Amino acid sequence: MDTGTLWEAFLGRGVTRREFFRLSSGAALVLGAGAPLVVPGVVCAGGVPDVAVVTGSAARAVRAAVSMLGGMPSFVKKGDKVVIKPNMSFAQGPASATNTSPEVVRELVAMCREAGASKIRVLDHPLRPGGLCVKDIRDACLVFGGDLVHALEEESFYREAAIPGAKTLRRTEVMKDVLEADVLIAAPVAKSHGSTGVSLSMKGMMGLVYSRGVMHFLHDLSTAVVDLASFLKPKLVVIDGSLVLSTRGPGGPGKVIRADTVIASKDMVAADAQAVSMFEWYGQRMEPRQVKHIRLAHERGLGRMDLGALNIGKKNV
Amino acid sequence: MKLRRLVQGVSLILFLALLLLPAGDLARGVPFDLFLRMDPLVFLAGLASGHAPFGRLLPGLLVVLLTPFLGRLFCSTLCPLGTTIDLTDRLLRKARKKARPLVKGRIPASEPPWPLPGVACVAGSVAAGSSLLVLVSPLSLATRFYGLVLAPALASALDLGARTARGAGEIFGIGALEYLSFPAPGYSQAWVTLALMASVLGLGVAAPRFWCRFLCPSGALLALLSRARLLKRDVSDACTGCGACRKACPMGAVDADAKKADPSACIVCEGCTEACPEGAVAFRFGRGGVRHEENLRQARHGRTGTGFSKTRRALLYAGVCGAGGAAFSLSLPGGLLAGPVENVLVRPPGALPERAFLASCVRCGECMKACPTNTLQPAGLGSGVAGFLAPVVVPRKGPCEPSCTRCGQVCPTGAVKPLPLAEKTCARIGAAAIVKDRCIAWEKDRECLVCDEVCPYGAVELRRTPENKIAVPFVDERRCNGCGFCEHHCPVEGPSAIVVEPKGALRLESGSYVAAARAAGLSFERQERLPAAPQSGPAAVEGGLPPGFEE
């Protein structure tokens, strides 16, 4: 069964919910059974890559990239609570590339379902009225039930947490769901950012805390972003590069490049570094070290930005 | 009587439902301010503004037109403040008994005050260009109290409950409860309304319906209209003159001679019909009652033997009050004598030019209640006494939501015009300006671009300058309509480093805001309408590094 086209089949044929669950559990079985067959293939080609870069239509590329890293079951165990953190901070259509594309989020939710997650939440702390920001992604995920996608704007959904080993941001209020989750998946869209160069998986973690203003005001922003990333470490990073906001991010409107690429990694620094180096920013080619928070994270050992020394697996689907 | 109670209860519930429901999505065509518009004073203010559509004036017009026929039925059935007073008067019954010796002799058992002075005072002030005195119109007060004081308190209590429910939801796995919350809005100047309401209700200790009887300006207006009402209080010959009706009347409308009553004081509550042990009192139309309902006015205010005319005195008093009200309004900062009025505060989008705005705003708080982001707040004295409690945009509380047009939709007088979204977007309320010495990018070379990030219109741009090490924000005023997202989200503690100023606000008496904005060279493009083709090279990088990157 071609699990990559599960959605197209689902949407095209208008299957019932029951039928869908049968399909998706079938897909899970195939995937589970198929993993040992698929993974050795990749291993032969140089082991499990540190970073998977897949080009192709968004949903298929997400599935392929995660498969290259060992498949979703290697990240999400049966019964796990999962929080997926996309960008959904702007009330603009997917064409603006300011939010993660709904297909990417939906595919991740589907894969977590297949892996047997007991609870999946797609969360962000948006800048605009929440309902408007999350609309596209919520609509896309409705097939899984109505209680998945939330914009949490009330302070009561957050709990203060200490960040051990922080350089500047020692305490902050983090979404309770995230603190209680077994697995955090970062699913940012690739976009530029006027003050931190780019906004990818590390910068995106700011969407899981309550007081973001203070990170600008009291702290050096890049250092605070690294502090936060040292605490909120996703098990899996999937960067949506189907559309890249190359200029005037994070809010746009800016130059949107169709790259049809998905980058996945267990290492958020490596994933971010890969996105920086492979896309153009303001018409220029940049190096990961030119993004302060990536350089700082690398120096602190949170991950690796030296792409030349990493195993980058590439694929086209 | 029972029917009246039912109507009263249903009216209060309807009033509250209409007031409290707009928190959700605003359904078009629902008259959220229906009760407000029934208030004769609000009706007058709407008439005076000249910007309220006829449909909005209709409820008030109906009340005004029906009162000469039915008397002050509005007061006893529809008025939410009257119903609230009835409820608290019941609670105050014991206190009233205790206070009786103190009050005795000071408040006439019957003989209500001549309503003209109060009406004249308010009418004079409205005519002279300020509706400040409408502050105490019953519906304005009730709307403000329920909407801006009680509702937020209730929401806070509900939110506390919701937190508990969330815990329970987690235990029992009820997904619907997981993110249940009732965010409570907050409003400034709540204490003014609370104090005013407390005094209005507290006066019930002195006498029942004290406010309605002696102070309510709308009631006074209706009293004038019901002097020769057609629905008359008819006392049959079965009357024994026991005085039970006189005791029961909350308005002091019944004379010592129980057959006589003052139609302008009577609110047709039928307390007297219920109290009469003989069943001798009834309200009916037509000739039957005419012989009994004698006009007490003539007896009271007509010439007495001493050559002193109560009527003349009352008219003189009313004249003085009217002139006083007018003089008061004229001398206020918004008044005609004060010269041109400056826009010192940021008003809601579509607000009339400041002078007309202050004259027609009845300070009901309906717009503030309807505002989804809590940005509309009752003003303090920032725009002078004349602007007290009028709505002001406070971006630090919340930004003006680009997709919302509620404030104009619910304004009962047209002080804030009801506008379609395209017009509202162009109804510029001001423009943002950067306070460079507070801005952490300009002043401290700190990476920050929150204002640029949140601007819905792309009016903030980060540019590299020779003086600064990092890209710093600039406002393109031609693209800024003053929504205040930047001021709201600015991370600087205390006052924002980017502030919406009322300068350049489009405040039109009539005509299209879209056309006016175009004529002024303004263009407010939402970012949703993105150019399909990639933009030409951004001005931000001229050979240098992209913003946010290092060497």
Topology summary:
The complex is a heterodimer of chains A (317) and B (551).
Chain A (H helix, E strand, L loop, with lengths): L5 H8 L3 H28 L6 E5 L2 H11 L12 E6 L15 H13 L4 E6 L5 H4 L1 H7 L7 E3 L6 E5 L8 E5 H5 L2 E5 L1 E5 L3 E3 L1 H4 L8 H5 L3 H11 L4 E10 L10 E10 L2 H11 L13 H9 L11 E5 L1
Helix pairs in contact in A: 2-4, 3-4, 4-6, 10-12
Chain B lengths: L1 H19 L13 H5 L1 H10 L4 H17 L2 H6 L1 H12 L1 H11 L12 H12 L10 H35 L17 H13 L7 H6 L1 H9 L5 E5 L8 H5 L22 H5 L5 E5 L1 H4 L5 H6 L8 H22 L22 H7 L5 H5 L5 E3 L12 E3 L12 H5 L10 H6 L4 E4 L5 H5 L5 H5 L5 E4 L8 E4 L9 H5 L8 E4 L11 H7 L32
Antiparallel strand pairs in B: 1-2, 3-4, 5-8, 6-7
Q: What are the salient characteristics of this protein?
A:
heterodimer, A: 317 residues, alpha/beta, Rossmann fold, ten-stranded mixed beta sheet, two-stranded antiparallel ribbon, 12 helices, disordered N terminus, B: mainly alpha, two-stranded antiparallel sheet, 25 helices
Main pleated-sheet profile of chain B:
2 strands, antiparallel
Summed up, the helix count of chain B is: 25
Give a short account of the largest sheet of chain A.
10 strands, mixed
Provide the CATH topology of chain A: Rossmann fold
Total DSSP E strands of chain B: 8
**Low-confidence spans of chain B:** 288-306, 528-540
Number of domains of chain A: 1
Name of the CATH architecture of chain A: 3-Layer(aba) Sandwich
> What fraction of the residues of chain A are assigned to beta strands by DSSP?
15-25%
N/C terminus separation of chain A: 15 Å
Largest sheet strand order of chain B: 1-2
Order of helices and strands of chain A: HHEHEHEHHEEEHEEEHHHEEHHE
Overall shape of chain B: it is: elongated
Q: What would the average pLDDT of chain B be, to the nearest integer?
A: 82
- The pLDDT mean of chain A sits at 85
